[in-house]
Design brief:
Length: about 425
């Protein structure tokens, strides 16, 4: 009965957030607009293979897209802070879609053209993720408790998107072909961005006054500490994708790998829902230290590599503290971003996490070849421990939140004391 009451309380809390004017539209629009980015690597691999290209070419094109995306996110995020959301997000979405359409229609011959298309598509991917988090305070009326709950809901919604997105690509490829998948994803990306930027909160939002500085958001020591930690969280997550595939190869193939990844996502989904269902007292920087510590501990049992059923359960356990850690990181970003740089700061988090994931994938490959799946999961453990060490060694910097910080509000800015 107590568990049921807790579940009803969670559902009621999130339902109340979604009933807030504009909240559901902005969340759904952002998720749809981010679909191309979330599943680009899968769609690119499908397309290149259908065109007769090698796995090496498919991987290289996906990597170019990822690197260009990592470069573009903070640059476009800074542009949003300077010029507003509609003037940046929608044009960027259109240009990014043109890059994907270019690949879908022209194919991989010449190869140079395919690489150029991926540079365009990745570099101009709109920073919708950072933009949504910049909008939450104004949409929710500046209520800190509700904003924190919205960050948790945002983290949970990401897990849903990363579960549904690959399924959508698979269906489009099966029913039609990979080129259609690229075209449909591009159209969804533009429609999602359009839904966001024509909304009242997006059109009315203005960044807080900012100090002119070439480093932008990166002049914050606390933000740099957080970015360093989440680079290694990304490393852990990227390595699990490779280690899980190696484990699946030895225990039943792709079906087992699919179950492991689904369990990891389910664990994160459950953890995020529970985390966002209640308010949390105390400094979020200290709470983040505990959450990342638990995340690192959760990766350790994966080293046992037991049978598929037990391994699936361990994967679910390993995911439990991922979404709470990400949601808490959103709060820390908001607290440490210099005035007028909030979208750029959130975009840097996306970039560091993504580059870390790419690094984890790259390191886990040789580790698996040398020591099998367990060695690959060892990279995940090392990434989690490294993230914890970064947070432990920078607690003084992370604790230095300036009083009287300016944050975005419903009609301009609010001053937080």
């Amino acid at each position: 009965m107590r568990f049921r009451a807790k579940g009803e309380q969670m559902a009621a809390g999130y339902a109340q957030l979604l009933r807030t004017r504009h909240a559901a539209r902005l969340l759904i629009g952002t998720l749809i607009g981010r679909l191309p980015n979330a599943v680009a690597s899968i769609a690119i691999v499908f397309f290149v293979r259908a065109e007769g290209g090698s796995y090496s070419l498919a991987g290289a094109l996906a990597a170019v897209y990822g690197v260009a995306n990592a470069v573009g996110q903070p640059l476009l995020g800074r542009a949003v802070d300077l010029y507003g959301q509609p003037r940046v997000q929608l044009p960027a979405a259109l240009v990014s879609a043109l890059g994907m359409v270019w690949l879908a229609l022209a194919g991989t011959d010449p190869v140079a053209g395919a690489y150029a298309a991926m540079v365009v598509a990745g570099l101009f991917t709109p920073p919708l993720e950072g933009g949504l988090r910049a909008l939450w305070p104004s949409v929710l009326g500046g209520s800190e408790e509700q904003v924190h709950a919205a960050y948790a809901m945002d983290a949970v919604a990401q897990e849903v998107m990363f579960t549904v997105g690959p399924l959508l690509v698979t269906v489009l490829v099966s029913v039609w072909d990979p080129a259609v998948a690229l075209l449909v994803l591009s159209a969804l990306g533009v429609l999602g961005a359009l839904s966001v930027v024509v909304s009242e909160p997006s059109r009315a939002w203005r960044s807080a006054p900012r100090e002119a500085h070439w480093l932008g958001a990166l002049r914050s020591g606390g933000l740099l500490a957080l970015l360093g930690a989440f680079f290694f969280v990304g490393t852990a997550l990227g390595s699990i994708a490779v280690a899980g595939m190696a484990y699946g190869d030895g225990h039943g193939g792709g079906v087992v790998y699919g179950w492991l990844m689904a369990a990891l996502g389910l664990g994160a989904l459950v953890g995020g829902v529970c985390y966002g269902a209640r308010p949390w007292a105390g400094a979020p920087e200290r709470r983040l230290l505990v959450l990342v510590g638990l995340l690192a501990v959760g990766y350790v049992p994966l080293l046992l590599t037991p049978g598929p059923w037990a391994m699936t359960a361990l994967a679910a356990l390993a995911g439990v503290f991922l979404a709470p850690s990400i949601a808490c990181a959103f709060i820390v970003v908001d607290r440490h971003a210099p005035s007028g740089t909030v979208t750029e700061a959130f975009s840097w988090l996306v970039t560091f996490f993504g580059v870390g994931a790419a690094m984890g994938t790259a390191v886990a490959g040789p580790a698996v070849e040398l020591g099998g799946a367990a060695a690959g999961f060892g990279v995940a453990v090392a990434g989690g421990v490294a993230a914890l060490l970064v947070l432990m060694s920078t607690q003084r910097v992370l604790g230095a939140v300036v009083a009287g910080r300016v944050v975005e509000g419903r009609s301009g800015v609010l001053v937080e004391n």
